[in-house]
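ingest -> fold -> write
write: protein_1
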Amino acid sequence: MKIRLDRTICDGFGVCAKYAPGYFSLDDWGYAALIGDGTVAEADRDAVMRALMDCPVHAITELGERIFPAASLPLTEADDPAEHLKTEENEAEWGFTR
């Protein structure tokens, strides 16, 4: 896992340094700074994810490849979304009228 901190968004709440002090430090004004290059060890993943999720201004982002569930994969030819389109011909089925 790799993370990025956008210091221009940070409002200095300090939540990140509270949950993951090995990855975030606070400067003299209370704004966060990333310690290291953003690479997170597997053992620290939960603490860093908590800091990421609890950041009130979403200044921390996770970098890398996303794995999407099978439901969001592209449709095949057999799964034609036009089959379920609401049209005038099937308006009684959908319960709408003009």
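write: protein_2
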Amino acid sequence: MCGICCSVVLTGIGADEQLAGYSRHRARFEAHGPAGLTEELAMELGRISSRNLGRDDRVIGDHGKEARFPFLDEDVVSFLNSLPVWEKADLTLPRGIGEKLLLRLAAQELGLPGAAVLPKRAMQFGTRIAKMENRGEKASDKCQRLQVSP
């Protein structure tokens, strides 16, 4: 341990939802083209607060940290919404290149060529932690064990 304590955690939440980072975005693009992908991204951004933000903020806060969501900053969201979908992602390109294209190009410009071509790997699957607790729950499910009965 380096001995330096931080109180703020920067998260990448919102990047996948706005820059077509999920495999379901590729499927939507293949089935419905750029218009279908644009519609899917708008829907995902619209529901991000109910699906992800509260959960992630609680988990981070439970560890005594404050979460910051730079990809959900109003100016960032406005900028990304002003761009046509083909400037944010090119899903005709292979996995690990076409999704989140705008971020990949920025990584190249910043001298991070290795990071620019890594395919997405969700933490719970990439670390295999999801296999440790298999209760048939999906990440989008509301946990019944934590809900107050009426």
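write: annotation protein_2
The chain has a mean pLDDT of 85.
Strands lie at 8-10, 66-68.
pipeline exit 0
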